[in-house]
Amino acid sequence: MKAAYIEKPGLPENIIYGDLPKPEPAEDQVLVKVGAVAVNPVDTYVRSGSIPWDLPKPFIVGCDLAGTVEAVGPGVTRFQPGDRVWGSNQGLLGRQGTFSEYAAVDQCWLYPTPANTSDQEAAAIALVGITAYLGLVRHAQLEAGQTLFVHGGSGGVGSCVVQMAKALGARVITTAGSDKKMEICRRLGADAVINYKVEQVRQAIRKLAPDGVNVWWETLREQDFDLIVENLTLRGRIIVMAGRDARPPFPVGPFYVKDCSMHGFAMFNAPAHEQQRAADAINQWLADGKLRAQIDRVMPLAETAAAHRLQEENTLGGAGSLAGKIVLVP
Known about the structure:
The protein is of the alpha/beta class. Helices cover 30% and strands 26% of the residues. The longest helix has 21 residues, at 119-139.
């Protein structure tokens, strides 16, 4: 089979697109004929070696996938050949990745794909959707009628946060850096969008939420906690899921006198049963038309190295050339 893999961590140019043996499903594994995969920032961290996990050799890159069940191991009870499935959490914690024509995946990390959802959409929603659900429901416990702020509402995680928060009945304020991205945010359901390139974000938030926001979802790698804490309500919650190397100052006094809380998390630490709960909600919202993937572009799997380079230019370099996910197809 064709696959995008590395022999050792390093630059995007380390990614090889070539032939590897087609995997055989183990006892509790499902062999998926891959229809689409999606690129995440964490994929680039694993590939570069900045997350020092022990990796299979060769290591197929990638976390997300969607496709059709080709075969199942003898212990599999949830799926059968012909079923359409999607999943995430591969290529992490030493597991083999997904950027290949076939992938053998433990059944606990796979979920049925709704009939109205394409493989490209399912792959694009996988990791970011589970991340958004865990942050909003498990950690922030967002409630109907509350106000949420999230940076970058047209991005991969941000677009899911906007839509899920609206599905949960919240009011959503977000930011974007262009008229095009602002329009995307509005289509996704944002109640207010701030153009951070021409507006003062601090002043705009105060005007839009004079009493503060209940939940601040921080997507930036370098956080401004003075800005965040001053705009939280009493018992406001901060969600942090980016900024691996960040060491910003923190306003302890204003934080604790408001009874605030901060929740940091990485989705791959969530056990299978919690990710299953997230997937169930995602599937229901997809089926009901309340959630859709924000895809920036679709590329051939053979161009994985270029896709990783583009992702890094945006995640690390702040290029701003992406509005959503990069999806690749075998």
